[in-house]
């Protein structure tokens, strides 16, 4: 069939075939390479920034490690302020004992005490108790100051104060709801 074509027609078909091969090579080989290079060129600044940040992190490795160690030590020292506990009931008992000692130190009388149900507060378990104490205003202020300076982390959730005898308003009755905290990871059953 090609033999029946003139030389000019064969040259034209050859040239068209050559152009088709060149266009096909351009579309299949050259264009994807150019697009990939353009995309890589656009990503270079972003990758340089990422590399710079990572190099900074590697350069600050010692400082970060020292900061982590200091934070871990601070957490360890703060965890000593949590109640020692095997169970929430043991922690509540420890909290009652601690508060009775503070009440005696402040010269107040403990009228009643009640353990409230534990409450989860994120990673901590809150152990609340309600305690009613009576005494003069100075003694109650001393008790609150002792609670504030307690070696354990204590939070006053509620405080109600009323006069025991209206005719002689010297003695007050204070009902405090206090909470201590334990780490559930430190629970032992």
How are the SSEs placed, and which strands pair?
Layout: H1 7-59, H2 61-79, H3 88-105, E1 109-115, E2 119-121, E3 124-135, H4 137-148, E4 154-163, E5 172-182
Antiparallel strand pairs: 1-3, 2-3, 3-5, 4-5
State the gist of this model.
By secondary structure, the chain is an alpha+beta fold.
Written description of the protein model:
- The protein is 54% helix and 23% strand.
- By secondary structure, it is an alpha+beta fold.
- It folds into two domains: 2-59; 88-186, Alpha-Beta Plaits (2-Layer Sandwich), CATH 3.30.70.
- Strands 1, 2, 3, 4 and 5 form a five-stranded antiparallel sheet that branches.
Helix content: 40-55%
User: What is the CATH architecture descriptor of the largest domain?
Assistant: 2-Layer Sandwich
Q: Count of helices? A: 4
Shape descriptor:
rod-shaped
Largest sheet: 5 strands, antiparallel
The CATH homologous superfamily name of the largest domain equals Ribosomal protein S6/Translation elongation factor EF1B
Mean pLDDT: 87
Number of domains: 2
As residue ranges, the low-confidence spans are: none
Q: What is the helix/strand order?
A: HHHEEEHEE
Q: What portion of the residues fall into strands of 2 or more residues?
A: 15-25%
What is the terminal separation in angstroms?
Answer: 95 Å
Features of the shown structure:
single chain, 189 residues, alpha+beta, Alpha-Beta Plaits, 2 domains, 5-stranded antiparallel beta sheet, 4 helices
